[in-house]
Write a structure and sequence with these properties.
The complex is a heterodimer of chains A (332) and B (332). Chain A is mainly alpha-helical and 332 residues long. Chain A is built from 13 helices and no strands. The longest helix of chain A is centred in the middle third of the chain and has 37 residues, at 189-225. Classes of the chains: A mainly alpha (332), B alpha/beta (332).
Amino acid sequence: MNLLRTYILPRILQWALVIFVGISATFLIPRLSPINPVDEMIGRMTAFASIDPHAVVSMRESAMALFGLEGTLLEQYGRFWARLLEGDLGVSFGNFPRPVSDIIAAGLPWSVGLLTTTIIISWTIGVFLGALAGYFHNRRWSQFLERFVVMVYPVPYLITALVLFIIFGAWLQIFPIMGGSRGEPALTWKYISTVLYFGFLPALSIIIGAIAFRFIMAKALTTTEIANDYVQYAELAAVPKRKIILFYVARNTMLPQVTDLALAFGAIFEGALITEILFAYPGLGFVLYNAIYNADYNIIMGIALLSIVGVATAMLIIDLLYPVLDPRVRLR
Amino acid sequence: MGTIIETNNLRAYYITKAYGVERTVKAVDDITLRIQEGEVYGIAGESGCGKSTLLRILLGAYQPPLTVVGGEVIYHLDGEEMNAADMSEEQQRDLKWRTISYIPQGSMHVLNPVRRIRDTFHDFISAHRDVTKKESFNITGEYLRDLGLPEKVMASYPHQLSGGMRQRVTIALATILWPKLIFADEPTTALDVVVQRGVIQMLKDVQQKEGSTLVLITHDIGVHANLADRIGILYAGKLVEEADAKTILENPRHPYTRYLIESLPSLDSREERLAIPGRPPALDRPPSGCRFHERCPLAQEVCKTVEPNLIEIEPKHFTACHVVEEELNVAV
């Protein structure tokens, strides 16, 4: 089929290429660093206890093999891909024998759950309110709303999160201040309700800032959109306002908004670093933070790989969706 | 045939206030018009003479800074006399498209780029009539066929149509509900001559089919010659001459109109055409007396101080010029 050959296939190839280059870069960059993680580890182990030098040498050798640091760079690269394609991301240095894929898999659902929910909620509310406020920019309520949002937007995320944390978690003690759930994981309302309960504050802290950003963007896009001839003409013809807002204004602002939405989804795999640390939420951000703290390269690399694939895939999906979103995008 | 729309001593100014400095642009100054049912009334004049402003007032589609400061606009529709100033927003909306319609200037951008033509038609039709989507598709299809447009434009997006086709679709969109009174603002500008001819023919067809009234605004005297029954010449916000098209073209009396007609190229003569000396006056501080006196070769002392009145120099031929008036008095 022509569409497949001229539009879809090249984009899938591009997607594969981006992932290949990205992963190769994550392989290369840590190896350019003068610090050898094995020596680091051995250094840490021998700092407070004396170990037999022969044991150290043999430990170093086996650690080099385990971490895939033997041989020339090219040999390492070959082995790296071979292992990767089997789904083996190596073992964690910090939690020594535990495989990286295990650790990431444990954190992943938390981050995906938290961020998917917050992204969808904040995007929808922000786009909706922003479009309304942009369209009715002369009304008092929209001006009030805009002033309020402009006040909230510049507050750094950390401050918003801390204020919520202190008021609702520490002072009023309505919401828990750490963890992701209570009890044994099961598909029962009892367990799921604790997930929602524990997730509420972290989610709220993200949503506030995200809505403000989305609102400002949607309002700016709408303001330029309503000056367009086709909007003015539809208004002159007394087309109902509901239709004008939906099909003439909002529909035309969708292209940048949907792109941004997809990018936000792609970035989910990095987790929400500050949120997860502050609320001790067991997601990928928390895992990443601990990995950085412990120089746990394999985990950092695992998360980086995941987020490369995530962003590239999001871009692929959005690229394939463009012609549906905007008929002016040629299928070429 | 009665009057369908009239203005009495209409004055409309753009009043802006910036940093306490008030600026008034007298775009429409003391204009009295009687437009008859079923006629094509052409309004001609150079850029910035107030043509589009006048049209906006007649259409009832204006917002501050444009303000009507004096005079009135009266519609005679369905045997009723309605003063535009007394009409509620509701009444204005009801009139639009069913009774009064508008073909905009630069219709390249009046069609929503992300909506198929037939959906735009449905939006406009269903705003005024209780129809299902299918019914409005039928109405649209039939009307486009009547006007000789290919049916495939129905399913197209605006960017897939040529400029001329887009303009024709816009004319169809403006007249789909058979309005009694159609305003057209520069409908042929920015089209090449061949396409212009098609568009002019289409306007003629539309107007004659239902005997609607067409108020046609363009600087292009050639278009007026093709379409208009009567022509009003605007200069610097004032009506300076008005007569039937033949008289204006063959026997113009106001010096400005004469310049306009003489500047038209002709096939017989190859000599250079005279341009009107000087530049159009700025309307925030129009010249005293006759507004044309600074550029007029016949100007006399009286022209600089006294504003000429529009007088009937022969049946149904009105001119506002001291010199012409004097000649007339001498002849009598």
